[in-house]
Amino acid sequence: MSNPKKRTPIGVFEVLKSIMDAKVAPLREAVNTGNRAQTELPVLCERISNLQTFIRNSRYDPADVREAETEITEYEYQLHGIQKKIARGQSAEKDLVYA
């Protein structure tokens, strides 16, 4: 019984490398986006905190309170988006290790 060794053509490795290279670029972009989002997170939290303090101090002016509450709602919506970007970036960073 003979056991001939089969060789894989180099073209197969080149195709696989090009596939992985194509997958790495979006992963790196997701990691960079997540890192930028992490720097935006504390700023946004501080803005929300400042608006909540403003509401406590301006509770007798209903127009200002409504406006501040509207801004808080918008910032919370942005906060949710930023948290998603951070999560995607962290996931991409883990996937990038394998790529």
What does the model show?
There is one protein chain. With 99 residues, this protein is an all-alpha fold. It has two helices and no strands.
Key features of this structure:
2 helices, mainly alpha, 99 residues
The pLDDT mean sits at: 87
Care to count the β-strands?
A: 0
Describe the global form: rod-shaped
Order of helices and strands: HH
Quick structural summary:
With about 100 residues, the chain is mainly alpha-helical.
Present the secondary structure layout.
Elements: H1 10-57, H2 62-98
Helix pairs in contact: 1-2
